[in-house]
Amino acid sequence: MADVSIEKLASDIGTTVDRLVGQFKDAGIVKNAGGQVNEEEKQKLLDHLSKQHGSSAEPTRMTLKRKTTSTLSVGKSKEVKVEVRKKRTYVKRTDVEEEAKRQEEERIKREAEEKAAAEAKQAAEEKARKAAEAKKAADEERARRAEQAKKDAEARKKNEPELSEAEKAKQEADRQEEERLRKAQEEESQKKLEEDAKKAAEEARKLAEENERRWKEEEERRKKAEAEEVHLHSNRYAQEAEDEEDMQVERSSRRRRKSKKHAGEHLKQGFNKPAQPVERVVKLGATITVGELASKLAIKSNEVIKAMMKMGEMATINQVLDQDTAVLVVEEMGHKFELVNDNALEDELLAEGMDGVKTTRAPVVTIMGHVDHGKTSLLDFIRRAKVADGEAGGITQHIGAYKVETDNGEITFLDTPGHAAFTAMRARGATATDIVILVVAADDGVMPQTKEAVQHAKAAGVPLIVAVNKMDKESADPDRVKSELLQLEVIPEEYGGEHQFCNVSAKTGMGVEELLEAIVLQAELLDLKAVPEGPCRGIVIESRLDKGRGPVASVLVQEGQLRPGDILLCGEEYGRVRAMRDENAQEMKFAGPSTPVEVLGLSGVPVAGEDAAVVQDERKAREVAAKRHQKKRELKLARQQKAKLENMFANMASGDVSELNIVLKADVQGSVEAIAESLTKLSTSEVKVNIVGSGVGGITETDATLAAASGAIVVGFNVRADASARKVLEAEEIDLRYYSVIYSLIDEVKAAMSGMLAPEFKQEIIGLAEVRDVFKSPKLGAIAGCMVTEGNIKRSNPIRVLRENVVIYEGELESLRRFKDDVQDVRNGMECGIGVKNYNDVKVGDQIEVFEIVEVKREI
After folding, report:
1. What is the CA radius of gyration of the chain?
2. Average pLDDT over the chain, rounded to whole?
3. What is the per-residue DSSP string for 647-678?
4. Contact 502, 511 (CB under 8 A)
5. Spatial CA neighbour of 611 closest among 674, 560, 565, 569
6. Tens digits of per-residue pLDDT, 459-471?
7. CA spacing 20 to 30 A to 856: which of 114, 180, 276, 826?
8. Rounded distance, CA 97 to CA 80, Å?
């Protein structure tokens, strides 16, 4: 058969091209998506897959079943058929396993023998070597003594006079005795050496026997362990026939047993219930599921659920409990708890490399103030740039960070938005800063966001410098600003306070130098220092998703140095820094303390305000990020569940609450948070804003699908939808709104929520008629002859009958006539006949009031 392409083969067997290429790769065949496959390669892939799934392996187990039927006589004329079923399973080892096992046994035996022989040989050699050394030493000593005796004899012979025959005989006898003693001593030492050698050989032989015995015992123990393991695994296979027979006999005997008094005694366990309740100490982290809590308490899950139901909370086994709830449950069940830190790995990772010599660093200055009071314009003059021109509507909607070289040294500026919606962003700016410059317009005075800025600065414990802006205007009144700030406990130095006031003009540059001097003076008083070397520590000022560059985070370095290639951990995101840029998009080789920098290379968009830290181990960074994500998810689930439980009965009592579902996408994380907070504050008891999805970056097909599933509207703030998302939005007819100024967004959402409010109805009186006479009609009953005194009387509207200005009946008109004609309405000052439906007690002097129900438009 001819070769086929990968795509054709994938379509024929019903799989994807990528998966098929991966399977070829696993089989040892490298193919790409556009390659060709021959028959040999297909067969090789088939063999690999068969071997992988176990279909080509020979059966390793065989079960034989046998069933026999016999007749058992139980009486004179009564027979019972007995069926005996036998089943035996044989487990077959493969030839490879048998050969491997045999070779292993032979190898172990051979190694044991070789080791024992080597040990015996080594011991014998050692003994022989020692004996030879001893013999050599004795021979040398004997030779030395003989030489010395010879020398002594010669000396004596030379020095002494000629001896007599008797003396010579005596000396010869002494010499022979000495020689005999020496020979006896040599024989004794030789005998001793031989005995030592024999003893060493005997010990070596015994050691070899002991080793051999020990290896045999080890082999027997190993075989016994294998047999037991095989028995455990094959108990239901090789012994099933015997077990089956035993079960048959047991069942038969149990059926025939007359008394069942002691039945099942052998099944009873020997565990005794504790006499007193066991008190356990449970370690609790930030979150825990009901199932995990029950496991730590060593009780069943339904016991914990029952205890929670008694406490007024419904729970399931997989429900995540927060720490406070878990503590209450543990105490309720009579146990003790111990709060533990879940962040041990995180603390260990961040504690690395914190030592170093601190040096002076540049101050981080945050500019705060009310909207349109000239914060960005003042910073423009300092930077000699035009930042404000690029902001939509002329207002700042992101945190900007800029490092400025001044005559008095370097200063890092954070420019925060002044609109009320950015309260959270301003609070974040205050916590990351050393000095706050409060910009107040001299012609406008203290405004609501000015008060909030003062509160943020005081809460963060940051010194405050007041810049009274717009001094070039004729209506400027700095004394008014000082008096209004005095009410906020911001006291100027000239009044005995500690806050510096500078009159400036962002337009002309008046007083800017004095403001910079005030910043430097305040920085000197604070004595700002940081470690310039070592791992970086900082804070994420802003983050966004760039279409071309991926996740981009603006990080303010607070300690250490950040360099390309460092592993940066930012909250739930981490990654190796691929590139660093300053506020002017210039590449940076490193960033020291008090330096704002734009970082590329993170795994995702971090939450603004998160701590950023350089770590050494990427694997640990990934673990910490995953753990933070899991912890955040569990905490969110625990809070949601708690809110559900607390509000369940309240919602049931108040009825259904209308929800406006919104999918929110913005260009940066700070805008997402600010808009979400503003929209959530619009919620009332009747209409609730529910942000089902939010994120940074353009509107994608996933966002459109989420909006379609939840019936939400899609709101884009400085972002647009891509082509696939627009198709889904058009097909599902989902409302898509684009905004670039936050005022418009909030106003339109408020209008949409107003339209969801339950309508309010009001009764409006449109006419009043006075009864002058009453006529009886056989068909219609009592007919009131009336004079219309106010407004118009309409036939289709509801009415009320009043007697002495008290409502006595409420119903509707049955007939309205003028003379003999039926009419639809009667004007003021005209007479008419009115028939009230199902009411005949109309009297002269009564008043008939006609009203209509009008729907009143409601607003939030």
Report:
1. 51
2. 78
3. HHHHHHHH---EEEEEEEEESBHHHHHHHHHH
4. yes
5. 569
6. 777 889 999 888 8
7. 826
8. 48
